[in-house]
Q: What sequence folds into this?
């Protein structure tokens, strides 16, 4: 089961509140806070799509980019033993550790979209 919903290249997180008996979520991967909620799945999809459309329209009216920008760099924390194994595989492949990890990520993303 997925805890995300997608529309127009936007992703929303989805959670359920048992005490409030409703679904709720927010648009991810944007700089602003945009939320939506619903009491059933059909309403959830509609309210999410409306939130995306409203967000895009608001950004157009304000003359700003709607999507979050990414620099292309990020840090991860891994166990030292995994770090060592990755570096060893990179050396054996004749690549820098950065290039090896980038290629591994690209391979994983490309193959997960085929499944």
A:
């Amino acid at each position: 089961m997925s805890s995300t919903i997608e529309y127009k290249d936007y992703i929303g997180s989805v959670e359920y509140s048992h005490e409030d008996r409703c679904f709720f979520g927010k648009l991810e991967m944007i700089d602003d806070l945009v939320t939506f909620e619903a009491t059933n799945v059909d309403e959830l999809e509609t309210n999410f799509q409306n939130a995306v459309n409203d967000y895009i329209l608001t950004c157009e009216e304000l003359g700003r980019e709607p999507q979050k920008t990414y620099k292309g760099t990020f840090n991860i924390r891994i166990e030292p033993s995994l770090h060592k194994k990755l570096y060893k595989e990179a050396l054996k492949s004749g690549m820098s550790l950065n290039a090896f990890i980038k290629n591994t990520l690209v391979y994983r993303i490309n193959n997960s979209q085929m499944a």
Observations:
- The first strand starts at residue 4 and ends at 7.
- The mean pLDDT is 90.
